[in-house]
From TrEMBL:
Pfam families associated with the record: ZSWIM1-3_RNaseH-like
Domain of life: Eukaryota
Domain called ZSWIM1/3 RNaseH-like: residue spans: 65-190
The organism of origin for this protein: Phytophthora rubi
Protein name stated in the entry: ZSWIM1/3 RNaseH-like domain-containing protein
Length: 269
């Protein structure tokens, strides 16, 4: 396995990354057809070969080695008001080359509680000529708050010609959207269809907020939500929304439709 990829794997292990994510990373970035057993064995070897340094010292050593391994590698560490490590961002030389080649679309994906300290991994990606996502930055963040996302984007802007990005795709976290609008004012911000549908299907089943709907009605609501997300015209969207409104207002219940009308019907461009 190539040295740059191996260093990334070691970093993921040191950060407490899951075996499944390491497996996906190796399969996507090398020609090696590894199995999950291979990955578990590799993680075990890396852990056995590790030092007895504290977590903080291991991270510091790792970042120094990362910065020295290639001229284009850049890392940033931000501390919170208590002097604790809050954001660690890295961009390798290869990542920066990926961005320089495919800067138009930026994908933002945050995965929660990815290591033993319950930090989150925020990955910025671009889409290559084959339609595959390529990471251009990894940031380990204490929590997904505005200040942390600002630091993630400050690192991104410092090491890339970020003005070349035109569209940013985010998953379901609406907090990210507001920060992205401020930090990347010229970009169009889009929500991922998959995550929107997944989120809305979960929302309509929140019995405490919106009460319980019969299973057959929930299936019809799911169908309407899917059709609304994929509507091609405003007229088509309004027709699907009217059908959803009729379903959700049964038995004089208004809570669910009020939620949709206030939070989603205004999200049109």
């Amino acid at each position: 396995m190539g040295s740059p990829v191996m260093r990334d794997v070691e970093l993921m292990v040191d950060c407490g990354g899951k075996a499944s994510r390491i497996y996906d990373y190796i399969r996507s970035n090398t020609a090696h057809r590894v199995t999950m057993t291979d990955v578990y064995n590799m993680i075990s070897r890396i852990k056995k070969g590790g030092s007895q340094l504290s977590d903080e010292d291991q991270v510091a050593e790792l970042l120094v080695n990362f910065n020295m391994s290639a001229e284009g590698n850049v890392s940033t560490v931000n501390e919170n008001a208590r002097g604790q490590t809050a954001v660690v961002s890295i961009s390798s030389e290869l990542m920066r080359k990926h961005y320089s080649r495919f800067p138009e679309l930026l994908l933002v994906d945050c995965t929660h509680k990815t290591n033993r300290n319950r930090y989150q991994l925020c990955t910025l990606m671009v889409m290559d000529q084959f339609g595959n996502g390529q990471p251009v930055q990894h940031s380990v963040i204490e929590r997904n708050a505005d200040w942390h996302m600002v630091k993630v984007l400050e690192h991104f802007q410092a090491v890339n010609e970020w003005e070349r990005t035109q569209v940013v795709m985010v998953d379901k976290d609406l907090n990210e959207v507001e920060v992205l609008k401020r930090m990347l004012p010229h970009c169009r911000i889009l929500l991922c269809h998959f995550h929107v549908i997944k989120w809305l299907k979960k929302a309509v089943r929140d019995d405490k907020k919106y009460g319980t709907y019969p299973s057959e009605v929930l299936k019809q609501i799911d169908f309407c939500v899917h059709n609304m997300v994929y509507s091609k015209t405003e007229s088509e969207l309004n027709d699907n929304a009217q059908e959803l409104k009729t379903l959700t207002l049964r038995n004089e219940r208004e809570e669910l439709w009020s939620y949709f009308d206030k939070n989603w019907m205004a999200c049109q461009e």
